[in-house]
Amino acid sequence: MATPRTPPPLDQDARGIVDPAQLQQMAQLTRYPVGQVLDGLVDRFWAVTWALPPGHEHVQAVLNHPGANLYVGVPEPGAPQSAGPVDGPLEGALEGPHRFVTRRRLAGKGWTVAAMTTPRGLGAFARVPARTLTDRTVPLHRPVLDVDGPALVAAVAAGASEPERVVALRAALEQVVETADVGRVAIALAQFQPALDRGGDLLPEEVVAVVHGPVRTEVEAVVHELTGVRVDLAHGVDAYDEVVADAFEDSVDHRVAEEGEQPGR
């Protein structure tokens, strides 16, 4: 099994970060590898910390990848604060694939740790069709994810350092995958034949549809459900990631031309 790649630091890859130089003045963004269990489902973990002077605020614009962000951290100024067994206001949320520029307001001191899924990865984590999460941000909790939201937030907050918080989030998501429907994970990993070898009776109908591909539109409907992005699979399932990414970028082109950046974080 190949070793998951180490994501490049911001100074080597700033795609999607509008005015990365200003971000580096206001906050520290660090990227972390995903580990073996989440490889293929999560593109990277990322974490940001900031400490701004009183009365100062920074608004960061981002052009998003065709994936989701599952995060725990300090909410934006003025956002509703969720009660939970942690000190200070923290939130856990799932930010679905966004087809437009998103903006995040930073003030005071704070931090966020997150997992950015691959284009196909969201379907392995979500218990609802990924298409229903497009352009939405929802609590990181049941029924969307099979996880105890407050307990997850508390576990991440208990980390004494940023790397420990990332480890806590990674462990929680690994548990979600290990208990998830094998068919949805198989589709997300595009490992169709190995999944069938484990027993076709264990797989939902959509896996069989993707493997045998009797009707392309049915396959495209499955991809839409599990990724939240409409695609044309005319080039076959082998081009899965590339096709999904291209479709997502096409859907945002007319909204982000004025930003002059490419999707990323």
If you had to describe this structure to a student in words, what would you say it looks like?
This protein is an alpha+beta fold and 265 residues long. It folds into two domains: 20-178, no CATH class; 182-254, no CATH class. It has helices at 20-26, 122-125, 149-157, 162-178, 182-189, 192-197, 205-212, 216-227, 240-256; strands spanning 27-32, 42-51, 57-62, 69-73, 91-95, 102-107, 109-117, 137-139. The strands form two sheets. It has a six-stranded antiparallel beta sheet. A two-stranded antiparallel ribbon has the order 3-6. Helix 3 (149-157) runs antiparallel to helix 4. The longest helix has 17 residues, at 162-178. It is globular and about 50 Å long. It starts with 19 loop residues before the first helix and ends in a 9-residue tail after the last helix. The model is unreliable at 81-87, 192-216, 235-241 and 252-263 (pLDDT under 50).
Number of DSSP E strands: 8
* Uncertain residue ranges: 81-87, 192-216, 235-241, 252-263
The radius of gyration over CA amounts to 18 Å
Content of β-strand: 15-25%
* Total number of helices: 9
Write the element-wise H/E pattern from the N-terminal end onward.
HEEEEEEEHEHHHHHHH
pLDDT averaged residue by residue: 77
Tally of distinct domains = 2
Overall helicity: 25-40%
Our measurement of the CA-to-CA distance between the termini, rounded to an integer number of angstroms, reads 26 Å
What is the 3D form?
globular
Sketch the major β-sheet.
6 strands, antiparallel
What structural category characterises the helix and strand content? Answer: alpha+beta
Strand order of the largest sheet: 1-2-7-4-5-8
